[in-house]
Amino acid sequence: MLTRITVQGLFNEIDYDIQLKDGVLTYLHAQNGYGKSTVMKLVFNILQGNLEDVRTTAFGRLDLYFDDNSKLIVKNINEELTILMKMNRIEEEVDQEHLCEILGTTYISPERLYGYDDNGNLVPAIDLYMKELSEGIAKAVRDSDLKPAKDDGKEYTEADLDMMFKNIDAKVNFIKQAGFQPSVPHSLRFPPTRFEIGERKKEYRNLALSLKAYVDHYYQYAESIVVYMDIVNALFVNKTIELNNKGFLQARMDKSGTVIPISKFSSGEKQILIIFYLLLFKTAPGSLAIIDEPEVSLHVSWQQMLGKYLKDVARVRDLRLIVSTHSPSIIHDDWDLALELSETRTN
Predict the structure, then answer these.
(1) Separation CA 331–CA 279 (nearest Å)
(2) pLDDT band at 31 (very low <50, low <70, confident <90, very high)
(3) How far apart are CA 221 and CA 138, in angstroms?
(4) Of 109, 106, 108, whose CA–CA distance to 288 is shortest?
(5) Which of the four pLDDT bands, split at 50, 70 and 90, describes residue 345?
(6) Rounded mean pLDDT of 315-319?
(7) Residues 78 and 7 in one domain
(8) pLDDT of 346 above 60
(9) What is the rounded distance in angstroms from the CA atom of residue 260 to the CA atom of residue 4?
């Protein structure tokens, strides 16, 4: 995981040493023009292998330090890049193809309300993400039939299978909250009793392995949906987000029951939906996520609540978050997690 960022000669005159906070979240703040967004974009573009964007940014050297004592060194001399990975005093060149294998990285830009569709057209990002979510749920609904599981070669006692079914049952009940579930053959009870397992052990062993494979495949996706809905509903007021029968998100007003489509949501509500969608559905576990100016269009009360939910998602997904912000309300009570960029002028 990334632990430190150093930059020399940013804009040919500023040096930075950014020691990330222990834990899952670091807030980065500074006055306008200090280059915090530029540094964050550099980190993202380097780890994504977007070297043209790196090459054309004015800096002399950028080092990324990782928790395994390795260090990625990027030198930019007259727009010619040299990229080295240093470990145990040994430096090796890293090519563009292998940069993206070092650490998964997501950058959530301040200009996140719009994105490009498959045809290259600029469209509202919320439309893209909600369509993607709906299609994902629809696919999971269609994929309800259990597939024959690969035999793991293990010997299971009746007690082992009983415990396995109890564990699977709890996870399947959780998955149901996301709007889909596995289809168990009518000839078999789920969960079975110990007596039924004993009577038809081979069949129930196969069922347990098939259900385990299903749960292993869909549990994280279902968890993302459930956590997403829980966070959004904790933040939104006077309305409840729900999935309609087509798998699309909609809001229902708490008093009147009036249904409000996503397209009619406020800019701030869309910001919340987009930020947490990108974190939960587009960022792989163990990755770095950089969120630039999350305060855009958010009421102060939402800004003050945001950090709690960001930390919750980071823990659920094992993410390291860097939040670049101008807003003291975003940092709120977490000033021990905040780092102010202070410039050092290069001689």
Answers:
(1) 19
(2) confident
(3) 13
(4) 106
(5) low
(6) 95
(7) yes
(8) no
(9) 44
Q: How many domains is the chain partitioned into structurally?
A: 2
Is 267 inside any structural domain?
no
Is residue 249 in a domain? no
Strand partners, 25: 321
Helix (H), strand (E), coil (C) string for 9-75: EECCCEEEEEECCCCCEEEEECCCCCCHHHHHHHHHHHHHCCHHHHHCCCCCEEEEEECCCCEEEEE
Distances in Å between the alpha carbon of 279 and those of 220, 303, 311, 316?
13, 17, 11, 11
Please list, in sequence order, all residues whose beta carbon lies within 8 angstroms of the beta carbon of residue 272, skipping any fewer than 6 positions away: 231, 232, 235, 236, 298, 302
Contact 226, 178 (CB under 8 A): yes
How much is the average pLDDT of 82-89?
94
Beta carbons of 254 and 261 less than 8 angstroms apart: no
Residues 66, 156: one domain?
Answer: no
Tens-place pLDDT, residues 177-220: 999 999 999 999 999 999 999 999 999 999 999 999 999 999 99
Once rounded to an integer, what is the mean pLDDT over residues 255-271?
Answer: 92
What is the bridge-based pairing of β-strands 80-87 and 90-93? antiparallel
Residue 151 lies in a domain: yes
Which SS3 state, helix, strand or coil, does residue 289 take?
Answer: strand
Please, what is the Cα angle at 220 between 217 and 226, to 5 degrees? 130
Q: Is the pTM of this model over 0.90?
A: yes
Cis amide leading into 328 (omega within 30):
no
Q: How do residues 231-248 score in pLDDT, each as one tens digit? A: 999 999 999 998 887 777
Is 280 part of a structural domain of the chain? no
CA pair distance 309, 172, nearest whole angstrom: 25
Q: What is the pLDDT of residue 214?
A: 97
Q: Of 185, 218, 251, at which residue does a domain stop?
A: 218
Residue range of the domain that includes 162: 147-218
Mean pLDDT for all residues in the chain: 94
